[in-house]
Amino acid sequence: MAQVERARIFREAWIAGVRKYYPGEPKGGYVAPWEEMPDWERECAAAVYDQVIAFIDATGGGAAKLTRGQKGKFVAVCWVGQIYKHVPDPKPSYVADWDDLPKWQQETDADIFERIEAER
Q1: Residue 6: exposed, middle, or buried by beta-carbon count in 10 A (0-12, 13-18, 19+)?
Q2: Model pTM greater than 0.90?
Q3: Domain of life of the organism in this record (predicted)?
């Protein structure tokens, strides 16, 4: 699967999660279409997709036994790593610890892992 396809799957899962879990009307940037995303964010999406796949493969199927919370945490940590790679001085909310993320974002991150897992 091409990098752009992997990144789009990640983005589709993010938007679906935001629409499902975000309380009220989400910010425009949260649900902006693919074409409006900056290149660095597209690269982050593809990289995290690849990290999830590598993790699933490295566990020999054991990742299927993770809780939703563990799956979401993995996505969140991978995303934070990409933020540090691409954003020189990120806002604290961009690199927040799992426990500091809002519930809607935790659920969305877990959905992202499960969507990538299903694509496998």
Answers
A1: buried
A2: yes
A3: Bacteria
